[in-house]
Amino acid sequence: MKKLITESDIIKIEKSGKIDLPVDGNEIFTPLALDRVRNSKIKIVKMTAEKESASDQLPDSNQIAIGCDHTGFDLKIIMIEVLKSKKYEVLDLGTDNKNSCDYPDFAGAVAKAVALKKVKFGIMIDATGNPSAITANKFPGIRAANCFNEFTAASARSHNNANVLVIGAKAIGEETAKSVLNTWLNTKFEGGRHQRRLDKISELEKVFLNRTE
Length: 213
What we know:
Elements: E1 3-5, H1 7-16, E2 20-23, E3 27-29, H2 31-38, E4 43-46, E5 63-68, H3 73-85, E6 89-92, H4 103-115, E7 121-126, H5 130-136, E8 144-146, H6 150-158, E9 164-168, H7 174-186, H8 193-209
Parallel strand pairs: 1-3, 2-4, 5-6, 5-7, 7-9, 8-9
Helix pairs in contact: 1-2, 2-7, 3-7, 4-5, 6-7
């Protein structure tokens, strides 16, 4: 049976003064626990190689567009590495450095790639996630969701069929972001009553675009 390691467990280890945390591959770390480790002096000592999760499955398409502003640049590089390790074809739409820039330029590029069906999914990273989600959702057919934990990521995909994942690089830690991404990739849209509700959203969009006022 797997042993769950939580943030509280890491805090206890910190208070005990220990530095090394031995693991044998039968542990499951919560994202908050991993972020706590990353920001502490604790070192995870692997006794045996960890097994790759059997739940890592590709969606119907392996093409994903990704973008960021300057605040999300470092996390974007990490997310690209994760995606490539899972055999995704990544379309990097910038920014390409940490110089100050405007998030609408890149959120718009990601949303446009999805709207024009050049890719099936998009990922956008800024400081909090909110501004890029607002920008992306201006494009017809885009359902961008700012996700900050596994629950919001799973719900965005299973209930809302969101096609753009937005992450706030300053809102969540690196390991939490990885977990959010993994959940997003492995969750499929459930359809049914959720599709009926999405159809209503599409109708509202059409009514507004075709208004004569």
